[in-house]
Design goal:
The chain is mainly alpha-helical and 350 residues long. Helices cover 70% and strands 0% of the residues.
Length: 350
Amino acid sequence: MTRVNPEFATELIKYGVGDFNACFNCGNCTATCSLSTNDSSFPREMIRYTTLGLEDEIKSSLKPWECYYCGECSTECPRQANPGELMMSLRRWLTAKYDWTGLSGLFYKYLPAFLTAMVLVFAGVLFFANSVNWELERMLHYGHLFEMFAIATVFVVIFIPNLLRMWYFTVIRAGVKVPFKNYFTALSDLFVHMFTQKRAKDCVDNHFRWLEHLILVIAYLSLLFTTVFLNWFGTQNLFVVILGYLESAFIFIITVDFVKDRIQKKKALTKNSKPSDWFFVIWLMLMGLTAFFVRLFIDFNILEGNKWLYLFHLMVLAQWALIIVPFGKWTHFLYRSFAMYFAKIKSMNS
């Protein structure tokens, strides 16, 4: 039996949604959406589910992740119901439902809780620096170990269980019986969407935004590999050093453009930025900037007299790795990629 939650609309407001009740179900959003198809139409269906409080239907749906916020639906809506923002809010809500710890929902709904966590991580970095007597060499050594440990821990403790929950909600509980071989056959779709986000390219007038995202994803994942596995801050290999400079520079330049767009609010995507949007893009920008200058100070042999720079970088890194990546907007990148993968698996079964 379908369960109805009459308080769902009120709950969703905490995730950033506006006045979607202004919708009078004209269907204009679905008609104008670049990504909506006969086989997978949205956002009209999701608006209807939200209005009726059909939580289970939304939880089992992949459609909020198939939306890339092209913006036509919000721009063309005759009632200013902003369906694009509704889809974004549903993604935040789904992130909270996938997260077994409950922290994603807490941080999305209550900004003071998020800020408290950020302050606690900052205090933890200061405590760590004091415990090693502010010795730069030891801070660099343990900072590098922290990166490796944080990545492994977040992946095993947070992401794997959450992805299994997502799979359970969208495939198993949805009643889809998938032959085991389909999971392997569709793997190429997972990696293509993860690294290229190619579906976003189908948005009208979105090729430059898609290209920026493509370069950013490649630069971010490459810098992660360069710092963690090639020990960028510790190596003397010229190729690795130059590679790290290029990666961090690309991250900084592209995220500056993203920040500019959110300040100017000229696009539907950037008109209703929430704290999670700002923290994601600003902290990613700071990651690129501080990593670049830490390495530069190492090369000019002046980091010892400017330990504050590495501490600031470590603070940004720790907050990014422990809060924003596992519980913030970064997870959208992961869940969307797996949503495309699960959608492919389900389509192969139909």
